[in-house]
Amino acid sequence: MKNISLDITKASCFLKQDAVAAFEPRVKAAQQALEAGTCPGNDFLGWLHLPSEITPAFIDEIQQTANVLRENCEAIVVAGIGGSYLGARAVIEALSNSFGWLKNTKPVILFAGNNIGEDYLSELTEYLKDKKFGVINISKSGTTTETALTFRLLKKQCEAQRGKDEAKKVIVAVTDAKRGAARTCADKEGYKSFIIPDNVGGRFSVLTPVGLLPIACAGFDIKALVEGAQDMEKLCGKDVPFQENPAAQYAAVRNALYENGKKIEIMVNYQPKLHFMSEWWKQLYGESEGKDKKGIFPASVDFTTDLHSMGQWIQDGERSIFETVISIEEPERKLLFPEDEENLDGLNFLAGKRVDEVNKMAELGTRLAHVDGGVPNIRLSVPRLNEYYLGQIIYFFEIGCGISGNVLGVNPFNQPGVEAYKKNMFALLDKPGYEAESKAIKERLERE
Fold first, then answer.
1. In contact, 387 and 398? CB cutoff 8 Å
2. Catalytic annotation present for 259
3. pLDDT given for residue 213 in this prediction
4. Distance (Å, rounded) from C-alpha 338 to C-alpha 361?
5. Could you confirm whether 61 is annotated as catalytic?
C-alpha cells in the first residue's frame, strides 16, 4: 500500500545548497530528545508512541459506546474546544458527504462548547428541542468556560427531554482519570467515561478517545485511522535515515525557511473537505511553536476558492511566506465535464475530462506561478482521502511538530500565553478569587 509522501524540491530551491541537509544534526538531536524524554515539556510525550500502544480491545470499547449513542440518538453534540474538538471535526468533515445533512443522516454530529456565542447556543438548543440527542463532553478539567457553559445547558436540556435515567445512557464524559469537575460530575451521575491521558496535551489528542469516540459516532472506521497512524509512526522513527523520514524533512525545511526570513506558513488544500484539517493543523503548530517571541505563523487557504480572494497577496505580496500543499491524488467520486452545443462559456475544450483533472491542473498551475513569484512550496501527496491516510496525516504532522518545535528551541507542549486572556476575562466577570485582578483592570480601564 502506498503512503503519503513529501516533496520539498520546490522549497529547498529557495535555500542555499545543502541548507536542508545542514539541519540533520539538529533534527536528529530533537528526535533523540523526544525519544529519551529529555526535551522541554517531557511530561507531555504520551502521544509519541500512542498509535502503536492502542489495542484492539480499546478500539472495541470505544466502538461499543459509539454504537449505543448511534442507536439512541438523532443528534450527538460534541462539547469541546481547541484540541478537544478540532481533530475529530477535521476527520469527520473530511470523510462526510458534503451535503449529508440534506439526507437526514443519523445521527447528526454537532459541535459546540467552542465559543461563547449566545445566538449560536440559542439556535443549538432550539434545534435540539424535538430531537433525541446525546452529548460527548470533552474536558480534562471540566471548568473551561466555553465547554462548561455549553455542557451545563445541554445536560439540563437532555435530562428535561429524555428524563434523568435515559440521559445517563447518552451522555459520555471524556476527561481526567481522577481530578476535575467533569470527572466529579461523571462519577456522580454515572456517565460512561473515557480518560484523557495525563501525558497527552489537547492538540495531540486526536488518537485518544477525544477524537476516536466522535469519529466512531459519525460511523467511520477508527481501526483504519489508527492503522494509518501506526504505519506513519514507523516511517518517521528516529532510526529512519534523515533523507527518508518525511517528518524529519518537513521539520528541517520549514526551520531552514524560517531562518531565511519566511515567517508565515500557509496550509493549502484543493479539496474543500480538508478545511477543518487545516484548522486542526493551525492550532497544532501555532500553539506549539508560538512562544518566546519565536515561531512560524500558521495560516490556511482553501483553493481554488481563496485564489479569488487571497491569490493576489500570495502571488505578489510581501515575500515572507511559504506554502505547504496537501494534494489528494485520487478523489472518491468520478464526474465528467459535459459538452454543450452552444458552448457559450467556451469550455467545450474540457468536455469529457474529469473535474478532478481540471482541479489538478489548477493546482499545478498555481504552484508553478507561486514558485515563480517567490513562494517556496512543500507538497504532501496523499493517495486517497480515507481513514487510513487521515491517520497517516495526523501522526505525520504531530511528530513533525514535536521535532520542529525542539529544533526551534521552544517547549512545544505548553501554552502559557493562552492563560493571559482567561485571567482578564475572569477578573472582568468578578469570578471569586480574582478580586485583586478585577480591581486593577477596572482602574486601568478608567485611566484609558
1. no
2. no
3. 98
4. 18
5. no
- The pTM for the full model equals 0.94
In 3D space, the residue among 447, 441, 405, 422 whose CA is nearest the CA of residue 201 turns out to be: 405
Least confident of 4-18, 234-248, 297-311, 413-427: 413-427
Task: Give the Cβ contact number of residue 278 at 10 Å.
Answer: 20
422 part of the active site = yes
**DSSP type of residue 272:** G
Grid coordinates standing for 11? 522549497
| Selected residue with higher pLDDT from 429 and 31 | 31
Backbone φ, ψ for residue 79 (5° rounding): -100, 110
With a pLDDT cut of 90, the percent of the chain lying above it is 89
Name the active-site residue from 164, 234, 422, 442: 422
- Give CA separation, 308 vs 199, 303, 315, 337, 378, in Å: 43, 9, 12, 22, 22
Grid cell in block for residue 311: 491569490
- List Cβ neighbours of 272 (8 Å cut-off, separation of 6 or more): 98, 302, 305
Helix (H, G, I), strand (E, B) or coil at 343: coil
Q: Which three cell numbers stand for residue 19?
A: 541548507
pLDDT at 106: 81
What's the DSSP call for residue 46? T
Mean of pLDDT values over 309-323: 97
Q: Which residues pair with 133 in a beta bridge?
A: 75
Closest CA to 200 of 84, 295, 122, 294: 84
Task: Kindly report, residue by residue over 231-244, the tens digit of the pLDDT.
Answer: 999 999 999 999 99
Distance separating alpha carbons of residues 116 and 124, to the nearest angstrom: 12
pLDDT in tens, 122-172: 999 999 999 999 999 999 988 888 999 999 999 999 999 999 999 999 999
Q: If we measure between CA atoms, which residue out of 427, 418, 422 comes closest to residue 445?
A: 427
| Catalytic, out of 265, 287, 323, 398 | 287
Among the listed residues 103, 188, 293, 308, the single catalytic one is: 308
